[in-house]
Structures
1.
Amino acid sequence: MLLFGLGKLVYVIVLLLNAISILSEDRFLARIGWGRTQASEPGFGAAYDSTSVKAKSVNLIASVRTVMRIPLIAINTIIIVYELILG
């Protein structure tokens, strides 16, 4: 694709973004304790630590799912058409 090895890096980045964007918060993330409800509603008397790695990861996953939804459709379509034509 792009400059020999750089194309594989683009594929890996797109695949990782796809994986993050399809994670179901109810079916997967909440089961392992990474849902937004656990992160944003601490127990009685507990303080919510927004600086923890877990809280930042939950916010990153939610942000990627929100921001990258439409661009990923276009990027995936371009990659599929490229592979079909130039394969």
2.
Amino acid sequence: MAGMKALVALSFSGAIGLTFLMLGCVLESYGVYWPMFVLLFYVISPIPYFISKRISGDSDASSSACSELASFFTTGIVVSAFGFAIVLARAGLIKWGACGLVLAGNAVIFLTILGFFLVFDKGDEFSWEQW
């Protein structure tokens, strides 16, 4: 039952993050949809972890070159998502208020993705592999 509560909490926090992103796009004073390209960063951020998990298999090593490289790429993707909103605001394509909402949405969504992997990577009786 604890896994179900975690799944509901992660779903709720993901909805909050996407709400921030949508507000940064659709509010009447902002009205520009350039920040929606951040969704691509949300989709590709877990891919390096999945690839390293698949390649390294069940090795018990605390650190391997493959997992370190995956962490490096994931960090680059996350930093790029935050930098994308700031670059759009500096270029004048979006307003700074929209940038703030997108940055808040980024923080919530990436913490939700991190929470997902922390909760469901343990291999308990309830894991994401069942879905």
